[in-house]
Amino acid sequence: MSVIDMLGDQEETLGTEEDLREEIVVEVMQQEISGSLVKIEFETSAGFCRGYYFSSELGREEINLEAESMEILKSLFPGVNGAFVHQVKREWVEISLTESAAGFPEYKMFSRIVTGGAV
Fold first, then answer.
1. Is the pTM value of this prediction over 0.85?
2. Average pLDDT by consecutive 10-residue portion of the chain (119 residues)?
């Protein structure tokens, strides 16, 4: 029986044993309580949009978008009014338009960070 040294000859191309370790990050859906500040990010075909909202008991909170993010949405949807957290599917962002014949565009949140309550 022989032992094969997999890293020995390939260390330059694959890296060291430490480099080969893979870190898996599991994002758990954090619980929102009324008044929590929630920072979000979602990806569109024109780039990432970022913003925040304050969680409420009513649902469908308006997202305060960064100026650059609003410009991205305006380039995609000239009649954009803003963005809201979907009332039922809390991990989705709904884009509000001045006119919509077949519903509103939606994007799944790329990241969502719940922080402490409002000050």
1. no
2. 52 53 45 86 95 86 96 94 89 88 84 76
